[in-house]
Amino acid sequence: QVQLVESGGGLVQAGGSLRLSCAASGRAFSGYVMGWFRQAPGKEREFVAAISWNGDRTIYADSVKGRFTMSRDNAKNTVYLQMNSLKPEDTAVYYCAGDQNRRAILVTAARFYDYWGQGTQVTVSS
Length: 126
Hints:
The chain is an all-beta fold. It has strands at 4-7, 10-13, 18-24, 33-39, 46-51, 58-60, 68-73, 78-83, 92-99, 115-116, 120-125.
């Protein structure tokens, strides 16, 4: 069992930056694919980014490519999402998620992820 706790959200002006963190409990974390998702009011949860178990592969949604960077530190049981050049449309609750079944195959569908954090709010003002 893995528990995930996100932090780092907040209010930022358009063009600004935030770094989200997701701390995981459990020794198995280092073997998991990890992902970030977000959900804006009235919209479905959408994929943002994912990273392989050792951090050598990442994928991003087209809407954040070139602006967001996902990384992980397995020694600290933590994944990060560096968000630059933020836009008002990035406003959402951001969730981290863990996929215990695929070490290097990165999937974008939420149904493949087994563990979820409680989310952290990101608000970008114009």
